[in-house]
Amino acid sequence: MAYMPLDQNKFYLDDSKMTKIYDLSMPWGVDTPLWPFPGPRQDLVFPRGQYLGRFHKRTMTYTGTLHAGTHMDAPNHVLHEEEVDREANGYTLAEIHLERCIGTGVIVDMRYLRDEFEARWNAAGGDPARMGNIWHEITPEELEAACKKDGLEIRKNDWVIINTGFHHYWRKNNDKYYNYYAGEGPALAEYLTHVKHIKGISGTWGATDAPLWHHPLKEQMPWLDTAYRAATGKDPAVEYPDYEPCHRIYMQHGVCTIENAGGDIDEVTGRRMIIAAFPFRCEMADGGFVRLVAWEEGSF
Q1: Domain that holds residue 119
Q2: In degrees, to the nearest 5, what angle opens at C-alpha 79 toward C-alphas 76 and 81?
Q3: CB–CB of 212/224 below 8 Å?
Q4: Which of 57, 201, 208, 211 falls 20 to 30 Å from 159 in CA-CA distance?
Q5: Contact (CB, 8 A) for 285 and 94
Q6: DSSP for 111-152, written as a single string
Q7: pLDDT tens track for 157-188
Q8: Which residues fall within 8 angstroms of residue 144, CB to CB, at 6 or more apart?
């Protein structure tokens, strides 16, 4: 039978009696914001192969980058195989150790960074020449102060998710989201990896590295190179002389990295939770979509 009438009398599942799962992922589709590389870039495409009106089933084909929406990067995204201990930490997305994709963690409240950015942006009328250095690189001291405010402690083998508030720009102002988000530099990545020994990192940012850490900026993001020079009078090639150092620091040591957190994150910010995000098992993938989720400890 190709048609099945709905009988609600047979429903038996009741979500209200189940453990609450908080979705920290962003929805994605044809208008998903993409990293602003220079030049044209193919959008995400979802053609139908079969459709209900004729085939009584729908099948879709996806064509597009695996680095869209809330996604995990694999070591082979930015590292040569000789730079990685493949047996210890994996290399492709399929080789990510699943034990590292779930565990305890903290969702750190740093939403004041978005408020401070918005105030300075508005005061300058969006003019880079009047902004000064409006780009913010989070320091270990700032992160620890934010943890202390809510009584949180980053423990060994924790996940750390940083809520900067910038996810509120997603799909509303993608220029601000991708070019000005408060993010990480190598000092924070080194601290979380070699001092705190975390196993997972995510945040409400467009990339694991702050925007200016995409050397050479004049080639990777030329509009941002122009804006930074106008705002500061400095050369980003001198101030930020490396390409995505945080990516490499984390992934070389087996730390899971997830970009574009958001969703329900404001509901769990400032709390210790169980956090999970499992990548799909694709041998060719250098990254891929995940459902980043959290729930209260001991709730299952």
Answers
A1: 21-32+66-295
A2: 75
A3: yes
A4: 211
A5: yes
A6: THHHHHHHHHHHHHTT-HHHH-S---B--HHHHHHHHHHTT-
A7: 999 999 999 999 999 999 999 999 999 999 99
A8: 154
Query: Would you give the DSSP letter of residue 60?
Result: E
pTM: 0.96
For tokens 């209260």, what's the residue? 296
CATH number at residue 133: 3.50.30.50
Alpha-carbon span 32 to 13, nearest angstrom: 32
The per-residue pLDDT for range 264-286, each reduced to its tens digit, is 999 999 999 999 999 999 999 99
Token representation of residue 152? 């949180």
Find, among 218, 244, 279, 295, the residue nearest to 66 by Cα: 279
Compute the distance between CA of residue 198 and CA of residue 179 in angstroms, rounded to an integer. Answer: 27
Q: Is residue 141 part of a domain?
A: yes
Query: Is 184 contained in some domain?
Result: yes
